[in-house]
Amino acid sequence: MTTTILYVCVTCRGTPPVDAPANLRPGARLLAEVERRLAADGDKSIDVVPANCLSNCPRACSAAVSGSGKWTYVIGDLDPDRHAGDIIDFARQHRAHEQGVPEWRDRPEHVRKHTIARVPPVKPAAPSQEQS
Amino acid sequence: MTTTILYVCVTCRGTPPVDAPANLRPGARLLAEVERRLAADGDKSIDVVPANCLSNCPRACSAAVSGSGKWTYVIGDLDPDRHAGDIIDFARQHRAHEQGVPEWRDRPEHVRKHTIARVPPVKPAAPSQEQS
Question: Which segments carry the region annotation Disordered (chains A, B) (predicted)?
């Protein structure tokens, strides 16, 4: 099974934007809560990666779930006090699905209603014809 | 240089949504115009791929630019009669930049103002330890 990456935007100021030191921004708090929950579960199956701006500022906080050969999903309108569990659940569903496209009805309600975009997988480059 | 992929959502009905046969939907018209322009330029450097829904319906039409080891960008609010050139220009800039992050000031105005989201590259999986 390929690695599933959960990117969490740590520069997100939330909606409406709050003025807070970098480590107390809503995005940074969302990252901390995701990491705390996964550690509490002993779950090392999701690779949590902080990101500097996912360009979804009008609908912050933001996270994205991706993996080699799989669809990428961007989720928005995330509240660090309410939605950390939802994006963890979605990342686990994404990991379990071969193409990274969990059944719609199974996805957390927040994910169903606040998916910002999705992008097909980048196909691996074709082997060079020069190789034997 | 790695392949640059320009995904164009062919199911987009535009904003506000129009009722049209599949091949005349705004998304399908955007794809046709992108392909027509690249063919006219003799440009085969961009791999144009039709996509079925990029989940950006409220801000359709939609396209995404991606490439192995590069950032992915989703662009919205695209009008097939006005913005085919903008996403081609952005795809060429993305192709020319090692990380797929063209200089902000160089990007087409529509791309600067209507970027829906961006996602970091998926790192290639580490080589299996089982391989010799």
Answer: 97-132
Give domain B4-110's CATH number out of 3.40.640.10, 3.40.50.720, 3.40.30.10, 3.30.360.10: 3.40.30.10
Could you report the per-residue pLDDT of A70-105, keeping only the tens digit for each? Answer: 999 999 999 999 999 999 999 999 999 999 999 999
**Contacts of residue A119 in chain B, CB cutoff 8 Å?**
7, 51, 54, 64, 66, 72, 74, 119
Mean pLDDT of chain B: 92
pTM: predicted TM-score of the whole model, two decimal places: 0.92
- ipTM confidence: 0.90
A122: nearest CB among B51, B55, B68: B68
Cα dihedral value B74, B80, B81, B83, nearest 10: 10
